[in-house]
Amino acid sequence: MQNVIIQACSEQDKEWLSHVHSGTRIDIQLLDQYDSRFQSELIGYRFGRYLIIRFDEFVIPQSMNCTGLIAVCRFLIEDSLGECFAFKSEIVNTLRRPDKLLFMAFPAEIHRRPLRATKRQSLKIPAAISLRSAQGTSPSFNGVLVDVSGKGCRFQFDASHTGRKVNLLPILIRIDWPERGIQKEVSGMVRNSKMQDGFLTIGVQFDEEQPDLDISL
């Protein structure tokens, strides 16, 4: 899939920023002698000037000064298509009080790459999910499919059942979609998970393609 490069401080910047909310998880790779890499959290920005990113103390030792280093940042935006964004930027300041913060120069350009070859339709379909194992399936959790295609879906449910993360494990999804006369079970694999708006959302790749779930057909 082809990358798209977005020039900074344009109307397109405002478009992608509209999808980036406080709390977005960002993977940061420092271009230092150790090629350090860690997860962080976007907490704000000033358009065209800087991004503010919170980090955990243990990922950057107290003795390490990151100011002036160049970092490669990557993050996912899950929408009807799903895209990976990446940019390179300089760390212009580092704070450790009252919180651990990196101030990064607003990126000069953004690299944007689709995560999936097929577009998914945004909707809400009642469904339930359970873990598959050699002993059978675990108790199920109710939720909704928030998008779906013939190759996969995103499933959203109350995170209080499982915590804030789901491991990459085989699962079984039971789908109840009366509008299309579909009531079926589909096996798949969890590929990613993230917290969003108080709910846990997981990305699922089906073991076999499901043409009847492909709304684009």
Give an account of the 3D structure.
The chain is mainly beta. It contains one helix and 15 strands, in the order βαββββββββββββββ. The strands form two sheets. It has a six-stranded antiparallel β-barrel. This is PilZ domain-containing protein.
Mean pLDDT: 79
Q: Within the largest sheet, what's the order of strands?
A: 2-3-4-7-6-5
Please give the alpha-carbon distance between the first and last residues.
21 Å
Give the C-alpha Rg: 20 Å
- Helices and strands, in order, run as EHEEEEEEEEEEEEEE
The rough form would be described as: elongated
Hey, roughly how much beta strand do the residues contain? over 45%
Low-confidence stretches: 4-9
Indicate the percent of residues in helices.
under 10%
In DSSP terms, counting alpha (H) and pi (I) runs of 4 or more, how many helices? 1
SS-based class: mainly beta
Total strand count, please?
15
Summarize the biggest pleated sheet.
6 strands, antiparallel, barrel
InterPro entries: PilZ_domain, Split_barrel_FMN-bd
Protein name: PilZ domain-containing protein
Organism: Bowmanella yangjiangensis
Domain PilZ: 116-211
